[in-house]
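DATA SHEET
Item: assembly model
Revision: 1
Owner: S.N.
Input lines:
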Amino acid sequence: MSTLWLVLAVNSVTFGGLLFLLSAGFSLIFGLMRIPNLTHGSLFMLGAYFGATFVGGMLGIVFNFWIAALIAAVVVAALGAVLERFLLRQLPGQQLAQVLVTLGVSFMAADFCLMVWGGDPISVATPPSLVGFLRAGPAVFPLYRIAVIVIAVVVAIALWLLLDRTRLGAMIRAGVDDPDMARVVGIRVSQLFTIVFALGAGLAAFAGIIGGPILSVYPGLDQDMLPLALVVVILGGTGSLLGSFVGSIIIGFIYNFGQAMFPELAYFVLFLPMLLVLILRPQGLFGRFVP
Amino acid sequence: MNGRTFAMAVGFLALVALPYWIPGIYYLNVASQILFYAIFALGLNILVGYGGLVSLGHAGLFGIAAYATGYLLQSGFGHSFAILSALVLGMASMALYAVLSLRTTGIGFIMITLALGEILWGLAYRWISITNGDNGISLHGRPAPFGFDINSAASFYYTTLVVFLIAVVSVAIFVRSPLGAALMGTRDQPRRMNALGYHVWAIRFWACMFSGLLTSAAGILFVYYTQFISPQTLALTSSAEVLLMVISGGAGTLFGPIVGAALVVIVKNVVSGFIERWNMLLGAIFVAIVILMPEGLVPGTARLWRLAWRKKMSTGAKAEAKP
């Protein structure tokens, strides 16, 4: 019995890692631009579809899984930059209009995926080097899930270094804390918008393809992931890397254990931590401002 | 009788006589759809237009009322009990929505209502023992209010029309009432309203409840019309569709959401005959409206009309002044 709990716990951390990759960008975009990017689920799904296509072979070339993941992330990051530059930039300062535009784009992206890849789920093969299992006593863990946890931790550390130790990171933090003052001291905040948007889009796409072997890719994946990112960010607080990390792990546990214990209400149980946070600490566990 | 009253009277007569001049049953059914979606849009407009609170989870409330009706009828309860319970349940859910999401306004409000709507969608989709999952719940037959059979297209149209007219009149009264004025005050100057001694939260809460009532009524009409309810009705797409109705027609106007509902329902019905990709078009229209005509069709056209009128008047005056 305890083995089952252990396996479930590892699965939860894996899922939490995926959620972190998804929601870190969402949280940064939110923190900086003050808008929830409703295309974030679509970017995740686009990344997964692109990755699956590259891994499955395109134009006669079958890509290595990790190269495919990187290419997918770069392509989607470029898409994100275009979206920010050419659509959101048209509506400066109009946050409501910007949110509605991201919503409209997310519908177009969902339909685009349905048109190109069809309605059937696509399963993504686990990279051959990570097919095996890890044994710890009576418990058996798929090697790939452990690898996902490692990747998430590495990305978290890299992001932390970027935000905490570099000039760009300092500018982003300044923009999150006080965009007007950041402008006054000469930081080009609108350029930061594009960079952070592209970074967030790339991370979401990367999460999509990394999650492919676990979740598979199907129409509606965007609508499954977006609320999770929202809940993580409400829980952890907007614009906070630590917040998305802790929030992701919590939601990963609640989601997996909820599904094991009361499968019909798994989605509903997610709602409880959000409810508690909204009542007790509206800015989120580590957030600086109430959205 | 001024122009506005005259136009309203003509519109009213056209709606009442509609089954006699419209070419077929199909179009009559489209008209019924427009009417109950217009009730839904009127309900959302209370929050979006008059309260400045954009909800992206209203399809969840619409769906709760529809599911409650379907489930209770399936469990063998009568129509009046099912309708009443659906209204109560829809309002109770709206109260829960309000308590959670009215802690913030603006973007925070959107985010929380969106998350709540998605949770309701998840419940409809996964709580199979109640909702029958993706297969949905089918209804059999419609009620007969006061012994009046509404199974035919025309009689259902009239039932919907009665509810629609009650909704329009009640919204018009609400907007002119002190509560409506106070709501618009909280939209424009929440801090001043607070300083003047208004209870901003309570005003918004009661606006939410009114919106929830209209939304639930529309949901019940919807489920009686389609005789079927599935999780698709609660999806984010549906919330966005009704928001598009409000915004495209003109948020904060009485007739805007009605025009928007007509526009969206007609485009959806006409277009789905030619292409399958309704969502692509919905998304594109959404982006276009937000960028090009953010004020909506009704105020936008009215502004162009006034501009043209003034130009005509001023050129006329100049022409007279010249000789």
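QC remark: The first strand of chain B starts at residue 137 and ends at 138.
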